[in-house]
Amino acid sequence: EAGVTQFPSHSVIEKGQTVTLRCDPISGHDNLYWYRRVMGKEIKFLLHFVKESKQDESGMPNNRFLAERTGGTYSTLKVQPAELEDSGVYFCASTKGDVPNEKLFFGSGTQLSVL
Amino acid sequence: AQSVAQPEDQVNVAEGNPLTVKCTYSVSGNPYLFWYVQYPNRGLQFLLKYITGDNLVKGSYGFEAEFNKSQTSFHLKKPSALVSDSALYFCAVRRYSSASKIIFGSGTRLSIRP
């Protein structure tokens, strides 16, 4: 069974540019989560999809971030325009259900560097 | 509000010695508690979780964690460390509610010296 895959693994862009991160969850997993870890701090929740619907987007920093999950399969996270403080590691995770004690399956993350 | 604290950025242990990685949490109501591990260039992997019942939880790779409700702690332990245990460890908490988010700590880097 393929795991959660994220692309690209690294992205270096200049301030003001646009970057799109992609996440392919495990097949059959309806729940998809985006997280971010900035400069050695805690891993922070960004948003949660159930299929194609946004269940919770309370962690999205501002309107420069746009997440989509058309068709309920893969998801994209676009940052436009990117700012220096957006640098960090963006993780995607998926689960089949949304039971509170269910473990998350994580991708290996996208390291975003905004210069 | 939920929160998780991992007071140590780094823990250094000699191979063969016992190790402890500390975690304290704050949550209203009963918690679900988790430990995840991140090896270099890999995603986070689930190690173990506490749901209810026995306060000592056993997980992957010989790790265990002890839930202490009075101290609101969930420390990760292993009786005998291996060099291959060197990684980044994250503690996480979630409330007993499907509407709640899982909240992670800032991580502790565990370094095991031969």
Question: Descriptors for this entry?
Answer:
heterodimer, A: 115 residues, mainly beta, 7-stranded mixed sheet, B: 114 residues, 6-stranded mixed sheet, 4-stranded antiparallel sheet, 0% helix, globular
Terminal Cα span of chain A: 37 Å
> Which structural category fits the helices and strands of chain A?
mainly beta
Uncertain residue ranges of chain B: none
Mean pLDDT of chain B: 92
Which range does the strand content of chain A fall in?
A: over 45%
Strand content of chain B: over 45%
**What does the main sheet of chain B amount to?**
6 strands, mixed
- Oligomer type: heterodimer
Calculate the terminal CA-CA distance of chain B, rounded to whole Å.
41 Å
Strand segment tally of chain A: 11
Order of helices and strands of chain A: EEEEEEEEEEE
- Low-confidence parts of chain A, pLDDT < 50 over ≥5 residues? none
- Helical coverage of chain B, percent range: under 10%
Gyration radius of chain B, in Å: 14 Å
Q: How is this structure best described in words?
A:
The complex is a heterodimer of chains A (115) and B (114). With 115 residues, chain A is an all-beta fold. In chain A, 0% of the residues lie in helices and 49% in strands. Chain A has no helices and eleven strands. In chain A, strand 5 (43-50) and strand 6 form a beta hairpin. In chain B, strand 5 and strand 6 (44-50) form a beta hairpin. Chain B has 114 residues and is mostly beta strands. Chain B has strands at residues 3-5, 10-14, 19-21, 24-26, 31-38, 44-50, 56-58, 64-68, 73-78, 87-95, 103-104, 108-113. At the A-B interface, strand 5 and strand 10 of A face strand 5, strand 6, strand 10 and strand 11 of B.
Provide a quick synopsis of the model.
The complex is a heterodimer of chains A (about 120) and B (about 110). Chain A contains no helices and eleven strands.
What topology emerges from the helices and strands here?
The complex is a heterodimer of chains A (115) and B (114).
Chain A: E1 5-7, E2 10-13, E3 19-24, E4 31-37, E5 43-50, E6 53-56, E7 65-68, E8 75-79, E9 88-95, E10 105-106, E11 110-114
Parallel strand pairs in A: 2-11
Antiparallel strand pairs in A: 1-3, 3-8, 4-5, 4-9, 5-6, 7-8, 9-10, 9-11
Chain B: E1 3-5, E2 10-14, E3 19-21, E4 24-26, E5 31-38, E6 44-50, E7 56-58, E8 64-68, E9 73-78, E10 87-95, E11 103-104, E12 108-113
Parallel strand pairs in B: 2-12
Antiparallel strand pairs in B: 1-4, 3-9, 5-6, 5-10, 7-8, 8-9, 10-11, 10-12
